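To illustrate the input format used throughout this study, we show a single complete record. The first block contains the structure-token representation of the backbone; no residue identities are included at this stage. The design step must infer an amino acid for every position from geometry alone.
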């Protein structure tokens, strides 16, 4: 496979290196250049500073890329990986690479201001990263992780480009029904204002601003309602005539603020919701969103996500991802056996490990999140004897955190160090001994969960990376948006927009991709990743399994050579 590095040059030009003599192209010729090579017999990996900057203009020109290496994402990952000598990442402009941030969501553009960050040499940074991986004792794992991270960036750009099918007429009708007609800019909608007036009347607080937490707490207390906060869960426990309209106000205000008319104007175009994803937006490698609220998709607007005529949404989510990942990464065959089938917790009951499904859930979640007391703590103690490798792995990660050591995921992503960005500013005053002890305990809880959540993110990256290529091969000869394509991804759930005639084939590929991800990470240890697959017109209808598809297909990770459980302590 040929690595082709693309670097931006002044004067709207692109430097191409890595395949014979370097050549310079006008930026206007880049799409044709990439299209020609993607169609040829040689497989290429495009190396660039930021997929979010390079790929959208290619997609807009109808060019789809199979593989890339995202230098920004991979630099950040390698700089924190315990198995990498970060001295090998030092060199020309390396300080800029350390500070490089994701390209902001905007119209596709390659060239912006004429500063150093706009003209970084991709070939120089690529050589450093390749050398750093080659020198690592964990080179094979890191190579897989970098490929998955970069492929995830391609998927993110494609999902933004294709967009979630979105019925603006349905959305506006929903807003009008619940909030009233669209108000003038800066004014609340009529039904929301009426709800606020009802709350003021029932609390005898004419000047109350329901959006102000201090004002609302004071008004509640004057009405004889003493509460520590204004959370909905707290308010629901109260008996007062104002509580029902107050809860209704909160729900309507949230809809207006997060998915109201202004949101439609900003994030929906051409009948598509186009969020801006940020791959590896969290320390564990999980994604976040740069805009549009893609990773907090509320139930009340899911009915607006409707497939095109003649198309469907294939929605798939994996059951109990992180406990299954814990079984695989720890090599705990007893827990892996319990994970055979759709319900891991019930599998633990059937194996005689616990008396009830609730006990199994309490024990496993308690182990991953550090429960030491109460019913959950009691279950952790009992299950540790039954599943010593799985429970021992998270306990080892917690002890490492207490010692101030970093830990790693299965493929080698390192966690932030104690005293780093996760908990305090480098300019903060020295903590006293009690504060240090609290920080170490908090860090131990973080490291305990990091190893599992981060490896779960790696499995999910491998899943969508495999799936995007399977969907491309399934869809014929047209551009991305005419074939089955990913439109949404949320940690352990994917949504594919597909022609109705290909629904069953797409569902089968979703399951096959999950099985392939399991084999990549856990090799011969058979860990099942069963999926619930729905084929629906509207996202609101998802949840009912689609008969005869990956929901009941075998998705175990069988075959091949097992990679072995990596040491989780990074030093």
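Output of the design step:
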């Amino acid at each position: 496979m040929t690595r082709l590095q693309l670097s931006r040059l002044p004067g709207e030009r692109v430097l191409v290196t890595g395949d014979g003599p370097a050549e310079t192209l006008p930026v206007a010729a880049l799409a044709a250049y990439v299209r020609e090579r993607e169609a040829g017999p040689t497989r290429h990996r495009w190396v660039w500073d930021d997929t979010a900057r390079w790929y959208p203009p290619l997609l807009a020109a109808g060019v789809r890329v199979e593989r890339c290496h995202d230098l920004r994402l991979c630099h950040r990952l390698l700089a924190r990986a315990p198995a990498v000598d970060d001295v090998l990442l030092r060199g020309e402009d390396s300080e800029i690479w350390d500070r490089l941030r994701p390209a902001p969501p905007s119209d596709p553009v390659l060239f912006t201001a004429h500063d150093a960050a706009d003209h970084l040499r991709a070939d120089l940074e690529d050589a450093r990263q390749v050398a750093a991986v080659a020198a690592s004792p964990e080179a094979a794992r890191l190579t897989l992780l970098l490929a998955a991270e970069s492929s995830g960036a391609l998927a993110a750009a494609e999902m933004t480009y294709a967009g979630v099918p979105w019925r603006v007429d349905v959305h506006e009708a929903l807003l009008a029904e619940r909030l009233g007609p669209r108000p003038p800019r800066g004014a609340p909608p009529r039904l929301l204002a009426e709800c606020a007036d009802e709350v003021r009347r029932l609390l005898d607080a004419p000047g109350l601003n329901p959006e102000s937490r201090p004002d609302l707490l004071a008004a509640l207390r004057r009405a004889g309602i003493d509460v520590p906060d204004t959370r909905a869960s707290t308010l629901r426990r109260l008996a007062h005539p104002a509580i029902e309209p107050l809860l209704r106000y909160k729900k309507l205000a949230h809809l207006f603020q997060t998915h109201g008319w202004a949101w439609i104007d900003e994030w929906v175009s051409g009948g598509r919701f186009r969020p801006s994803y940020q791959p590896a937006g969290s320390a564990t490698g999980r994604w976040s969103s740069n805009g549009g609220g893609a990773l907090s998709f509320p139930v009340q607007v899911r009915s607006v996500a409707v497939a095109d005529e003649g198309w469907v949404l294939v929605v798939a989510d994996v059951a109990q991802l992180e406990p299954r990942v814990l079984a695989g990464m720890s090599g705990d065959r007893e827990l892996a056996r319990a994970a055979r089938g759709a319900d891991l917790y019930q599998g633990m009951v059937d194996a005689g490990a616990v008396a009830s499904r609730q006990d199994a859930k309490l024990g496993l979640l308690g182990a991953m999140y550090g429960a030491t007391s109460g019913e959950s703590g009691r279950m952790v103690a009992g299950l540790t004897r039954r599943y010593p490798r799985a429970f021992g792995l998270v306990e080892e990660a917690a002890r490492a955190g207490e010692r101030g050591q970093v830990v790693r995921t299965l493929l080698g992503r390192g966690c932030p160090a104690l005293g780093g960005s996760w908990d305090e500013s480098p300019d903060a005053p020295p903590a006293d001994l009690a504060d240090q002890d609290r920080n170490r305990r908090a860090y131990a809880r973080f490291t305990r969960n990091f190893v599992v959540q981060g490896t779960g993110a790696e499995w999910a990256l491998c899943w969508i990376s495999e799936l995007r290529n399977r969907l491309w091969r399934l869809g014929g000869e047209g551009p991305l948006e005419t074939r089955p394509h990913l439109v949404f991804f949320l940690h352990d759930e994917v949504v594919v927009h597909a022609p109705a005639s290909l629904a069953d084939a797409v569902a089968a590929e979703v399951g096959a991709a999950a099985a392939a991800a399991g084999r990549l990470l856990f090799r011969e240890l058979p860990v099942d990743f069963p999926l619930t697959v729905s084929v629906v017109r509207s996202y609101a209808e998802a949840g009912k399994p689609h008969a005869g598809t990956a929901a009941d297909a075998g998705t175990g990770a069988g075959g091949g050579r097992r990679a072995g459980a990596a040491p989780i302590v990074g030093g």
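Structural context for interpreting the output: The longest strand covers residues 2-9. The chain has four domains: 2-162, 169-265, 274-319+458-541, 322-450.
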